[in-house]
Amino acid sequence: MTCLKLESPAKVNLHLALLGLRDDGFHELAMVMQAVDFCDELVLEPHSGLQLHCEGLELANDHTNLVMQAARLLQEAFPERQLDVRIRLRKRIPLKAGLGGGSSNAAAALMGLNRFWGLGLSTEELQTYGARLGSDVPFFIAGGTQLCFGRGERLEPVAKPAGGAVLLSKRMDVSVPTAWAYGICREELARAYLKGEQAFCGSRQALRRGEMVAALHRGDMTTAGHLLCNQMEGVVTAQLPVVRQNLELLRQAPDCCGVSMTGSGPSVFALFTTVDTAQAAHRSLFGRLKANDIQAWVCGLREDGVRFC
Questions:
Q1: Catalytic residue selected from 40, 91, 96, 136
Q2: Contact assessment for residue 156 and residue 29, using Cβ atoms and an 8 Å cutoff
Q3: Residue 290 is a catalytic residue
Q4: pLDDT of 57-66, one tens digit each?
Q5: Is 63 helix (H, G, I), strand (E, B) or coil?
Q6: Which of 264, 263, 268 is nearest to 242 (CA)?
Q7: Which of 84, 173, 244, 297 has the fewest C-beta atoms under 10 angstroms from its C-beta?
Q8: Measured between alpha carbons, how far is 244 from 239 in angstroms, rounded to an integer?
Q9: Which residues fall within 8 angstroms of residue 257, CB to CB, at 6 or more apart?
Q10: Could you give all domains of the chain from N- to C-terminal order, each with its CATH number?
Q11: Do the bridges between strand 268-272 and strand 165-171 make them parallel or antiparallel, or are there none, so unpaired?
């Protein structure tokens, strides 16, 4: 096969709640995740052997990279096949930023290699493989707007609102390891955690039937923006005041519907009704963002996740 090219998008969390601890030690989550048009690029090319080359940001090319882990996982699943490829990963999405870049890259690798190698795996099978690599990987295979439960791998689609955009921003000298953030949350929030599947089930149902999902279904970005919620935000900003400063700066954006941290941070975002209003807000804040060493990107909301180009 000749080369294949894929877009590997970032995500934001419109809602993120830590319900409690599961029997396996992971957090039980209730989230609304949204894919956005801020993408890395994966290119698959014929090659003798398995090779990964990363461009754009400093990133390991070895077994620690989720792209390589995805390729090895499929090779192990099909040991009778000679599965060779060169993968070029062009990175734009910052690392350890709460934007899901690594999980998105893994999803792109699974989807791309499935086609490149002619494996014939279904979307559901790819999501099963993806869940073995990371909790957010199945989301990027499905994309769009999703309710995400369990560790994040249990998906229920939500109608993507018409239009809508975000202004993403991140202090380029600040990163947040996900494990560290969840560990701090466990220390700070444990007393309020729910216990048991019945309590978890009630919270899932409340989110399904809640005003956030209703607002997204009817395309009401203003209400959705007012309801943005990330339970990790208060914990992370207490440890990293620069994240709070970034949030406060975005709140000054004209026509902003709401502001929140995404994932475990440190990236934050402002929600807008249109790309045009997001771009206007970016222009109005540009000087202050630059003065605070904050990089920002305007992104539309996607109806899909990983996409073949």
A1: 136
A2: no
A3: no
A4: 888 888 899 9
A5: coil
A6: 268
A7: 173
A8: 10
A9: 221, 222, 224, 225, 226, 270, 271, 272, 273
A10: 4-159 (3.30.230.10), 165-300 (3.30.70.890)
A11: antiparallel
